[in-house]
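Notebook entry, structure prediction.
Reason for the run: the old model in the group folder had no record of what sequence produced it. Starting over properly, with the input documented here first.
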Amino acid sequence: MEKTIRTAFVKSLPVMAGYLALGFGFGVLAAQAGYGPLWVLAMSVTIYAGAMQYLAVDLLANHATLVATAVATFMVNARHIFYGVTMIDKYRNAGKYKPYIVFGMTDETYSLTCDGKSPEGTDFPRFAFWLTLFDHLYWIAGCVLGAVVGTLVEFDSRGVDFAMTALFVAVFVEQWKGTRRHRPALVGVAVSVLALLAFGPDSFLIPATLGICVVLIGGRRFFETKNEMETPTAQAVANDAAEKEGGR
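New structure, fully documented this time:
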């Protein structure tokens, strides 16, 4: 258990750096819109959706209807539907950890758990739980700290909301550097640009997400390199070794 917690904490450190800064920005914006630390704490614990929380400040300030809020929430977080589909098998046997790790699956946490693997000597569901919990705590801490500072100090907050875009770029670059397969990333960029040109900045998210899924699923064999298709998995190697041992 201690190794799992320690490993999850180390893996979460890059997210901590981003979430403290992003959460701080949200807290400042929320405080300047009239929402104090307790409101920010409640939103960070229950909503836990960076881009949506930024948008929620404007929705609340403009007295948006429930229907408008629901539609905006769906549009902003629709990508999580596709994240969730890819994690069905990986989270199938998560047991008591499942409700929370499903709730807490943000972009950054997903990027660290999407391969369904945990470091050697750790259990994946428990590892995913602690990783998700650490990331959530970082977000809460950053938001509340920002709300406190925003309540006490007056300053120009223009540009603070760009922090979310900056984190997405950082995650993309890290994923690019961490894998030899760049074709899927290039497909994502190309399809997103085409959707942006076709549907505009306010409506391109869902078409882009659908397009990326269709292209990647339809061209799965093309995107898998020859070495990846021929290299046996760790499980296959273990099974083969067990069969040889049993035959002796």
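Summary: Confidence is low (pLDDT under 50) at residues 226-238, 241-248.
The old model has been moved to the deprecated folder.
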